[in-house]
Amino acid sequence: MGEIIQAIYTFLNMLSRLKNLVLFSLISGLFITLILQGCAQMANPPGGKKDTLAPKISESIPLNKSRNFKGKRIDLTFNEYVSIRNLSQELLITPSVGTYQTKIRPQGLSILLDSTLKDNTTYTFNFRNAIEDASERNVGKNIKLVFSTSKDIDSLQIKGKVYQLLNQKHPENILVALYPWNDSLSIHTSKPYYFVKTDTSGNYLLENLAKGKYYMAAFHDVNNNLLYNSNKESVDFISEKFLDLISNVEQNFAISLQNQDSLKLSKTTASAKTVLYEFNRGIKTIQIKNPPKATLYYQQEENKNIRFYALNQTNADTIFIQTSITDSLNRTYQIPLKIKFREPTKRERVQKMDLNFEVKPAAGKLLSPVDSIQIKFPKPIQQWVSTSLQFKTEEGEIHTLPDQAFQWNQYQNNLIIKNAYLPSRTRFELNIIKNAFVGVEADSSQAYSQKMEWQDIENYGSIDGNISNPQADTNYIVELLKADTFEPYMTQSTKKRFEFIHVEPGIYQIRVIGDLNKNGVWDIGNFKLRKKSEPVYFIDGKIKLKANFQISDLLINTQK
């Protein structure tokens, strides 16, 4: 702008030398006007208020809540220019109208039905978040068109809330489905007659429903096919045979994964040293029914995989074994396995690595009064020397522990040094001598040292309480969870009272599982048998525990 003013000043000086004053005035006035207009065009003039209103239906065929509609074309016109977004996912039509085509217009859209509407039926077209204005992207929330093909409009409704059973979160876009009841109905083969999806708070509302007997379920429809897929979609359902809808109903759902797939071997990967078997679902236990003459080491990995290791085997050997595997639903399978290692490459023949391990508590972490020391290995251990684990006190004393102080797990890859045998001194040092452990691949551990310290008991707190209204002859699994991760910190089984001692200061939640079959774990339901997952309860809110503090007499209500 400064450069333009300078140009005006120079031009006026030049014109001022003209003797014709009239001509000078006309030229200078015209020039200044043009320059100022150019300056004005550099910025847009201030406008009106920002549009914050969502689009609304101004006209529709049929009209909302109209009756006796028999057409095959639905037309909607809005009060402003609109954009249509993700219509195929956002538009929910109940009951289903089959296939249709859409035509988009600047201020609306048309839906052309491929089949005739059913008689005596109330239809709902719910556009959810598909419609927004073209200028400011204001979304028209839950724009609906309701009409009937008869003289009456159905008016019953079912509302409620959906939450996740194991963490109480309220998920969005969970399908809540209503099915005409019959004895052979199954939610994994039948599509719902009415359905809706939950909002961001987990709420849902099914409207304009006809009287009748229905079955009802809620599930996370991951692939949007309106069919329940048990291997990857969380679900809940009514346990009653049917819902007799004669008045408005409130129905809540607590969804959880209920994978009912049979255990199957999905992949086998062989190397020169190991064979990995990958299964399609979780494994609880594995037993070898006919142990081979050769020593066979194996371990479970990532909950559902089993890895076998070569030990004193030639690569030409093939080992045939029969396994008994129990899956996460306590179903046992007899599965034959053929173990065959491939020939090693030149690099594999010369490759040798140290045996690594992990010590818990980790370096810098304190031992609680109830802690044991845990040493975790990435593979089974074939040889070890207990006296190679030494404990040095501040006074310079060096101790070794008896064999009963150590406990290996089933796979020989996790060693526990029991709490009762650890030094009682405030501080001590764990020393592991070189080659104390030899893995199944002939790799040895290096020397290791870690300082340990017992935490002062005054730095801990305690939490206790009771199960209110416990069911007779029912066990309860009480879990103290880290509030930020929902990771179990402490767990105990009880019929009524629970108590957690030596708890680190922090923020916690308490989850209680109704262990109906008394097997010590939470069991999923079975949608085919209409058997729900074992119930889960929470204490309302979070618990903030301080050091040397006791939180007492908490009550967990199992009647919710």
Keywords:
mainly beta, Immunoglobulin-like, 6 domains, nine-stranded mixed sheet, five-stranded antiparallel sheet, 4 helices, 43 strands
Summarize, please.
The protein is mainly β. It is 8% helix and 41% strand. The protein folds into six domains: 30 residues, no CATH class; 92 residues, Immunoglobulin-like (Sandwich); 102 residues, Carboxypeptidase-like, regulatory domain (Immunoglobulin-like, Sandwich); 83 residues, Immunoglobulin-like, CATH 2.60.40; 98 residues, Immunoglobulin-like (Sandwich); 100 residues, Carboxypeptidase-like, regulatory domain (Immunoglobulin-like, Sandwich), CATH 2.60.40.1120.
Poorly predicted tracts of residues = 1-6, 15-24, 30-45
CATH class assignment of the largest domain: Mainly Beta
CATH superfamily membership of the largest domain: Carboxypeptidase-like, regulatory domain
Residue-averaged pLDDT:
89
Number of strand elements? 43
- Helix percent reads under 10%
Radius of gyration: 36 Å
Strand content: 35-45%
CATH architecture of the largest domain: Sandwich
CATH fold assignment of the largest domain = Immunoglobulin-like
Note the total helix count: 4
| Global outline | elongated
Task: Specify the structural class.
Answer: mainly beta
Number of domains: 6
Largest sheet: 9 strands, mixed
Euclidean distance between termini CA atoms: 72 Å
